[in-house]
What we know:
alpha/beta; Rossmann fold; 3 domains; five-stranded parallel beta sheet
Amino acid sequence: MIFSERQPNTIGDREAEQKMKPRLDEVAKLAGVGIATVDRVLNERGGVSPKTALKVIEAARQLGIGRVLPSPYRRLLRVKVIMPSHRTPLLQRLARAFKYQSVQNIKTLVIERVLFEERNAAAVPEMIRKGTADAVIVFVPESSTMIEAIASATSSGTPIITLVSDLPTTPRLAYVGIDHYRAGQAAGLFMARMARQKKFLAVCSSLKYRAEASKISGFRDSIRAELADTPPIDVLEGDAWPRTTCDRSVGGLYIAGSKASLALSLEPWLSTNPVVIVNDLDEEVQRLMHSGAITLTIDQNPEEQASRSIAMLLSRLGITPHNHVSTMVPFTIHTRHNIAQTDGATASLPSGRGAVRQSV
């Protein structure tokens, strides 16, 4: 059997070859390497360092040559995920979601989850800068030092994704999460139309997180747009709100963020029967919804946030084909009518009090 290399023998073949050569020159120029290096990478001939190969692939993709990183240059990528350590439903679900992503991409990446206590948030910028991670995903409060750290890491070539709570003034690769302002608007719409008494209380754990500040802002704007008379809207920041005196004139309670137990926090309010809207969905929230203590919840779909952030990084690092991944994750509104009944649904309220049912 005789093998022969096909030579361009038509005008079309020669034109295609001539068009390809300038493109290779352009790739070489953009990547800062020689054309022979580009040829070795794109044709998987080997002999090029992974770092240089990645530069060539990135340049090729910028010029419209859709390529992924050839297999000889692939290694396990290290992705660092930096997030708070407190055990809220959102963070627990994110932890499980990233564990799932690690298993799903076990031959491609290693996910290192780095937790920080919020009282020690000043140490987070150094966590962002140091280490040998190929990419970083952060869910962090907003501060000037945090912004500087992300800018520094990005300038050194490390792609960074902000998750759940955005830092839009940074040169991050993308923000992956819900539109918190609109989520707050949705809460305000329901609250304004459902609450019998038009006085409202909004609770957040920290306004240093842009996500919570945006929810509160959207909530207030929506309430004021829905109601002709400007209603009183009080905002409480921090974890001391469950210990505040229960105001019987409050008709609606919006919990934009809290690290406290919802069952314990809501107990003093049960006798006043307010409309209660929370964020995120776990077993405790489901039980409290079925018992009537919580009216509805606005879920951030953290599993989808984790999935999209990893997909974006795999594409950015040349491991998967370049596909557009939407960074805006839709939020989902749940009432007791569209979630499964959990065992012992009314047993979560403390002190043996009877459940107060809300009409939805």
